[in-house]
Write a structure and sequence with these properties.
Blueprint lengths: L1 H16 L8 E3 L5 E5 L2 E3 L4 E2 L2 E5 L2 E3 L2 E2 L3 E3 L4 E3 L2 E2 L3 E3 L4 E3 L4 E2 L3 E3 L4 E2 L4 E2 L3 E2 L4 H4 L7 H22 L1 H13 L1 H24 L4 H30 L6 H15 L3 H26 L13
Parallel strand pairs: 2-5, 3-6, 4-7, 5-8, 6-9, 7-10, 8-11, 9-12, 10-13, 11-14, 12-15, 13-16, 14-17
Antiparallel strand pairs: 1-2
């Protein structure tokens, strides 16, 4: 159904951006969808939801889901009924005896279908192909290189165009670490929630689409600012701004080669960057509270 497709696509876009979200939130809207960022998505026996989407954690369906179940990182266990497809990007789908699935099972791993379970659709592999089909020649290494080059260019442009603003962001982190972390977490978790809630309402879909697309740029700016803050902490003035940024970026991209640590460090950098930008912007609008910024090359 069109509405289910819109929800699944929206969740997919935002899920990529939140590969290691540090906070959790759960919303049950008037449309009776169950959306979980981190934790467990559980539909108890006797409960019924339209669509279930979970970004990080297990999904257990003992009740009824009238549309689809989409899980990005975690196993899915079906003991009740799902009317349409069950999608697991990174996790095993288990269909218990007596359970029914009216659509396909979409998963990279082999699903477990117990005797007595009913699956009316087929098993399809590689759920992530939606994001790779347009560029099948891009592998993991190439994708990482593309991210590194993109962030590098973005950072160099920002430093060249607004060097004093970059200094203000660095000063905001040094003198306002607590507020920066708080604002960074709020933006990292809050903006996707707003986008998801907008998708749930018909009138809010255009806003949700715009915000979901804007999240790519917002988080890229946050990550870039995080690399700058890290680099400036490593190479203090009078070291060149550009050299400091390169140092921070190199550290982050080297860490990104470690699969488990990459998402955590990337999220921390984004939180720091978003928070520092927010604090610096607020200070710029409040004369008298701006932290002193030393002259730099």
């Amino acid at each position: 159904m069109p509405r289910t497709r819109v929800m699944a696509l929206a969740a997919a876009v935002i899920g990529i951006l939140l590969t290691a979200a540090p906070a959790a939130a759960q919303e049950r809207a008037e449309t009776n969808d169950l959306i979980v960022l981190t934790g467990e998505a559980g539909v108890l026996e006797g409960e019924s939801f339209d669509t279930v989407v979970i970004f990080d954690g297990p999904a257990t369906i003992d009740g009824t889901v009238t549309h689809s179940v989409v899980a990005f990182n975690g196993p899915v266990t079906i003991s009740g009924s799902v009317a349409e497809e069950v999608v697991a990007f990174n996790g095993t789908i288990t269909v218990r005896s007596g359970a029914t699935v009216g659509g396909d099972l979409v998963t990279r791993s082999e699903p477990v279908i117990e005797e007595g379970a009913t699956v009316e659709g087929v098993t399809r592999g590689d759920p992530g192909r939606l994001f790779r089909d347009p560029f099948p020649f891009i592998g993991r290494l190439e994708a990482g290189l593309a991210v590194s080059v993109s962030v590098l260019l973005l950072g160099l442009i920002l430093l060249a165009v607004a060097p004093r603003a970059a200094d203000a962001v660095g000063a905001a982190w040094r003198t306002g670490t607590g507020p920066s972390i708080g604002w960074g977490l709020l933006l990292l978790v809050g903006l996707p929630i707003v986008a998801i809630l907008a998708f749930i309402t018909i009138l809010g879909i255009p806003f949700g689409v715009g915000l979901a697309l804007a999240l790519f740029l917002i988080y890229a700016l946050g990550y870039t600012a995080g690399a700058w803050v890290l680099g400036r902490a490593l190479l203090k003035p009078p070291a060149s701004r550009f050299l400091a940024f390169l140092a921070g970026l190199v550290v982050l991209r080297v860490v990104a080669l470690v699969p488990i640590v990459a998402g955590i460090v990337g999220t921390i950098a984004t939180v720091i960057g978003l928070g520092a930008i927010t604090v610096a912007t607020w200070r710029a609008r409040q004369p008298g509270v701006t932290a002193p910024v030393p002259a730099q090359a």
